[in-house]
Design goal:
Low-confidence stretches of chain B: 254-258
Shape of chain B: elongated
Mean pLDDT of chain A: 92
Strand order of the largest sheet of chain B: 2-1-5-3-4
Structural class of chain A: mainly alpha
Helix content of chain B: 25-40%
Structural class of chain B: alpha+beta
Strand content of chain A: under 5%
Distance between the termini of chain B: 52 Å
Radius of gyration of chain A: 19 Å
Order of helices and strands of chain B: EEHEEEEEHHHHHHH
Chains: A mainly alpha (222), B alpha+beta (258), C alpha+beta (637)
Number of helices of chain B: 8
Largest interface: B-C, 82 and 80 residues
Mean pLDDT of chain B: 95
Radius of gyration of chain B: 21 Å
Low-confidence stretches of chain A: none
Number of helices of chain A: 8
Order of helices and strands of chain A: HHHHHHHH
Distance between the termini of chain A: 58 Å
Number of strands of chain A: 0
Oligomer: heterotrimer
Bound molecules: flavin-adenine dinucleotide, protoporphyrin IX containing FE, iron/sulfur cluster, FE3-S4 cluster, FE2/S2 (inorganic) cluster
Chain lengths: 222, 258, 637
Amino acid sequence: MAAPAHLLNSSVGKKIVMAVTGIVLSLFVLGHMAGNLQAFLPNGPEALDHYGVFLRELLHGTGIWFVRAGMLLAVCLHIWAYLGLTQKSLAARPQGYRVTDYEEATLASRSMRWTGPLLGIFIVYHIFHFTVGSVHPHFVEGRVYQNLVSGLAVTWVALFYLVAMGALSFHLFHGVWSMLQTLGLSHPKYDPWRKRLAVAFTIVVCGGFALVPLAVLAGVLK
Amino acid sequence: MKLTLNVWRQRDAKSEGKFVTYDAPDISPDMSFLEMLDVVNQRLVEKAEDPIAFDHDCREGICGMCGIVVNGNPHGPRRGTTSCQLHMRSFKDGDSITLEPWRVTPFPVLKDLIVDRGSFDRIIAAGGFITVPTGNAPDGNAILVPKDCSERSMDAAACIGCGACAAACPNGSAMLFVAAKVSHLALLPQGQPERYERVLSMVGQMDAEGFGTCTNHGECSRACPKEIRQEFIAQLNRDFLRASVFSRPKVAGGAGAG
Amino acid sequence: MELNSAVPSGPLEKKWDKHRFEMKLVNPANKRKYSVIVVGSGLAGGAGAASLAELGYNVSCFCYQDSPRRAHSIAAQGGINASKNYQNDGDSVQRLFYDTIKGGDFRAREANVYRLAQVSENIIDQCVAQGVPFGREYGGTLGNRSFGGAQVSRTFYSRGQTGQQLLLGAYQALERQIGLGNVKMYARHEMLEVVLVDGRARGIVTRDMITGAIESHVADAVVLATGGYANVFYLSTNAAGCNTTAIWRAYKKGAAFANPCYTQIHPTCIPVTGDHQSKLTLMSESLRNDGRIWVPLKKGDMRSAGEIPESERDYYLERKYPSYGNLAPRDIASRAAKQVCDEGRGVGETGLGVYLDFADSIKRLGEDTIRERYGNLFDMYERITDENPYKLPMRIFPAAHYVMGGLWVDYNLMSTIPGLHVAGEANFSDHGANRLGASALMQGLADGYFVLPYTIGNYLASTKQGKVDTSHAAFKDAEAAVATRVKKLIAVKGHRTVDSFHRELGKIMWEHCGMGRTRQGLKTALEKIPRLREEFWKNLTVVGGNDEINQTLEKAGRIADFLELGELLCLDALEREESCGGHFREEYQTPDGEALRNDEKFCHVAAWEYAGEGKTPIRNVEPLAFENVHLTQRSYK
Ligand SMILES: Cc1cc2nc3c(=O)[nH]c(=O)nc-3n(C[C@H](O)[C@H](O)[C@H](O)COP(=O)(O)OP(=O)(O)OC[C@H]3O[C@@H](n4cnc5c(N)ncnc54)[C@H](O)[C@@H]3O)c2cc1C
Ligand code: HEM
Ligand code: HEM
Ligand code: SF4
Ligand code: F3S
Ligand code: FES
């Protein structure tokens, strides 16, 4: 059988797809988070607007579409694998146990199934919110900083963002080390560091993201 | 001591099952869990009631035949211990214990606590071997095996095929069992010729049998009576990745996986 | 009945090669046309079924467990012997042969034992190639440990799970053949009859343990590799399911049963704790490499081991057998333990136990080395007894473990029923009156990998037999017999459980036919057993029917056979008026309590022939000629 066939048809293969797309998504959120933090620079508003412009003008405007296409593909493959794997697992235990007693499985590992879709929903909303602007009451094309602040000034929106970041933190906490395991990156000597890496990555990304809505709520960014 | 048992009773594969409660008075802490069940069964038989059916044979933790989910723990609360080696001193007087069969689609319940684990044999038949017909072997010492390789291989080979991993896995995945066999052979020089072929065919069979998928929960290693490490699942993933990326179209007559 | 051992002529070391050349071969294209039934998937059956299938025969294989991988060979811990002489310590085929003959107290057939020693080397090669993770030296070469009854280090091991790893090797080979469609595996099938057509074994009748279906299976040759019957003692180191049914059915169809009284009591098992006990757990004999066995000098000394000073300890094996010390053979070590306990010097609540102490070797080698060597055994001990053997000495006591006796077979492993071959522990062939440690795995694999594939071919090639199928009267009769028997068991509807009968039989056997046997004791047993059997058929209770999984019914069938075998066992023990190996008749011992053989009268195999219901079986003898070793009083001093 050809390589892709194994990757796409078998459970372990799908899992690898999940991991690889997971990396792409993880790296994206890392960079995205860094980008957002520019809002805190003294010249925050300009910085962020220019950042937006920079994004859109990348390679004469084509770059962003490459990025978008890549992101879209990653999310789709990720979700596709998710559907395949999750369905298989549900089918493997139609009848559960009367008593269950998990010791190793974490809340994060067992909620992957839910934090994932939640993130999916968030992303869709989020794009209509800040990129398309259709769900944004005071959306002004190109005024990224202003959109950001005015958008998150609405308390429930900010709260939703925070909830989403909570979901993301769970997702990454298990996801990042799980990904290493899935890709076979394991060695007794370094294994202890895999979970530490996951924790660090989660704190940085989700912490960084969360700062923005918090700051807006607190009136630091206006 | 005195115990209360909630036991899954099911006449056969076709019938519906249900939980039945039994009192188990004067149980000695020195008894093994299965000896406790023996006593309960003796009393049932004396009352001409159908005794609780459960699989067992060696009763010393090596054949892998026994397997009961005790209060949500396959093989019971004690780590690195099979149901038959679990002793009643792990319980307190007055405890109420729930006994359930392995619950995974590829392990259909045959009766009470007995399931059919034929799917594991089929996974081995699919490629869990080294092709060396009797009489084809070179001298034992012609193949040097670094001590550390044989030790790690042995860690994986210690698997007794009990199925507790799949029973414990929230996803009903048999990855630990398959990983143990793949690693046992992949870690030895003798296992290299069929190494990548093997991992593909065994994973293929595992999927075909209808086991769940691994999302690295880690419950399997914890339930495993031989404490097979999750590290071996990474080993399987690694070999699978390599195999699926680099595998060539099968050459006619190539050492096949069954 | 005449017993033709069919041993080839010529010098001992040439017999097997000569025979292999003289045996007829089946043309490769024709092998597919022959079918072979292998009952048993242990080392003997599993290896045999796989090897026969590799040659191209149509094989069907049967086991009562849910998977062939669970045969009781899996429980073997210590290791497997081979005369590789990798340690350069003077081992050789000749020495392994001699040790085995001597270890068996000169009651085994020379030619078979020599062949065993010869193929032992191929076994290790085969298993290594299959990926059995044997213990290794740092340079990557195979490691060895020494074992009871030998002064050379020739035992190969995989931690304390050698049997498991060897069986997995055979199992994987077998599964490969199953995958290729060359073997049809019948798990959870119990064999309940052998079927003879024109005096030849042509098939078996089995009960599907899930549906209760009683089915016939036809073949051109039948192999029984169904293991040992030590469970006749109720408490033994065997698996709950180990039984005599398969070979007992064959015996009643005309296969001679050889030396049933040669049973082995293993010296290092975990002592009994109470009546609830369902089995005894073995602590591998390899522990005796580093553990020292002792009891207090004073009888009834209730102090804990730690409080007893060196000067008040009796390391009785080292004292009695200076040259072998703690590595004295099993029968001797077991009897010695019984003696000190009879003297009231036993340890533990029951007083039925002796210490196996690792304090010295832990001091000498460090706890890590000991953990590396025996870690899993120590853990097992700790799980069962709740005591930490790294701190306290282990408490051990002898337990029924292995049977040297079994169906009589000739050099080709064929029983007195043409076409019915018997391999592994189920036959009597190689261990005489006592088996040395690490020799049963060797024999099982020798039979399966390297003997049956040749001798079965020879049998098939040299015998013309017509086609038969399951509609043949012989099969219908056998099926009917099995069905009636099952019905009968269910119909008793008495008040006693199967286990209570088994436990009582076990008590009788252990008391009167265990480590020490007397004429009087055996006579008593011979009165008690028939009475118990009678009650069994009057007062047994089996719940449920045949057409379902019915574990009490399965057990009942096996105990019914044990109740008959037990009698034959005692009879054989009574008739053999000498002490040899595992058979110790207290009337026959040297002044210092060693087994006293009687070579004039008993240097032979006793092969019992079934004479019909209620009749005393006939005792045939196969004289044993020793041309290559001279009989000595077996001494390990
Ligand atoms: C605890 C323990 C430790 C041991 N340690 C060692 C050791 O270290 N070294 C050593 O050399 N030897 C050791 N022995 C002895 C050795 O393990 C056995 O003698 C040997 O494995 C027997 O193998 P076998 O293939 O003849 O029978 P088994 O492995 O017992 O296989 C019997 C097979 O027959 C099948 N069967 C039985 N009855 C029926 C029936 N009626 N119908 C259908 N199928 C049936 C069973 O399902 C099974 O597959 C040990 C034994 C025990 C009990
Ligand atoms: C509090 C957290 C977040 C804030 C404040 C935020 C803010 C923004 C803003 C302002 C934009 C518009 C940028 C532009 O148009 O130039 C944007 C775009 C985007 N964000 Fe976020 N974001 C957050 C979290 C996330 C997360 C968790 C994800 C992914 C799971 C994500 C995915 C995206 C995507 C895909 C785009 C569109 C990029 C494009 O194609 O133009 N964001 N975000
Ligand atoms: C910001 C977007 C996302 C990121 C950064 C992300 C990241 C990851 C990572 C790194 C993994 C680990 C892969 C592995 O274990 O091999 C993972 C797993 C998973 N993802 Fe996502 N993911 C995102 C979005 C989603 C979405 C939208 C879904 C579902 C709709 C989803 C569902 C899952 C599930 C169920 C797993 C579990 C697989 C496992 O644990 O093995 N994820 N994700
Ligand atoms: S991996 Fe562990 S739990 Fe799974 S089958 Fe093997 S021994 Fe049992
Ligand atoms: S518990 Fe299940 S998810 Fe994977 S790590 Fe073990 S198989
Ligand atoms: S009965 Fe053999 S492992 Fe439990």
